[in-house]
Amino acid sequence: MTIQLFIGLFTEGTTDQAFLKSIVEKGFIKIGMECHTDLEIFIHELKIEKTGLGFSEQVMKASKIGVDEFGISVLCVHTDSDDPDDIRAFEKISDALGILSETGDSHCKLVTPIVPVQMIEAWMLADKDLLRKEIGTDKSDNDLDINRNPETIPNPKIIIENAIRIAREDFSKRRRRDLTISELYQPIGQKIDLEKLEILPSFRKFIEAVRETYRSLNYLV
pTM higher than 0.90, yes or no? Predict the structure, then answer.
């Protein structure tokens, strides 16, 4: 018998959702193959009005909406570390979990953290061949200044934006259609191979969190 698993995805921003939706789905499907039951995975993007709400309040609101509108059993919560490590980010999530634990059945209390170091764009840099292809260039990593460990870059978003600029400098005006980083999140998220992402410790933590989620659901020993 196949069990349907409804998962809510709550992120910092809309581009984060565009990038992460396919990755989260692939991650849960991959680890789902280790489970002792057949699973069908459904990812639901949770969009809330965040104005005036702290992080824990946002997570609470997303958790309730996920249950009310989609019947979720799992809530994936994304927050960038914005630091060289993930300590403060996981403290934020821990605080939110403490508040969630005091709620009733109206909220989803099973949370899978997604914490890129330093920013979500570091995960986009995990597959530099794919990034170059999506930008549309055959320039080298050195030429594009992306030849570094993604999680050691303080602001990887700026690095990608700079790579786009460098890549398109030699294009003729006829070919030089403006390209922005916002156009890259969804296609890279859909196409990136999990094996490329697994070079990053923060992604491996997410994958282990998926395993723990399945254990909590008694689908995995």
Answer: yes
Peptide bond just before 118 cis, omega within 30 deg = yes
Report yes or no: 128 and 188 within 8 Å, Cβ to Cβ: no
| Cα first-last separation, the chain | 18
CA torsion, ordered 111, 112, 118, 124, to nearest 10 deg = -140
- Starting at the earlier edge strand, list the strands of the sheet with 38-45: 38-45, 2-10, 74-78, 111-114
Tens-digit pLDDT profile for residues 136-156: 999 999 999 999 999 999 999
Exposed, middle or buried, 187 (CB in 10 Å: 0-12/13-18/19+)?
Answer: middle
Q: What is the dihedral of CA 125, 128, 130, 133, to 10 degrees?
A: 120
The 3-state DSSP composition of the chain as helix, strand, coil percent (nearest 5) reads 50, 10, 40
71: left (phi over 0), alpha (psi -120 to 50) or beta: left
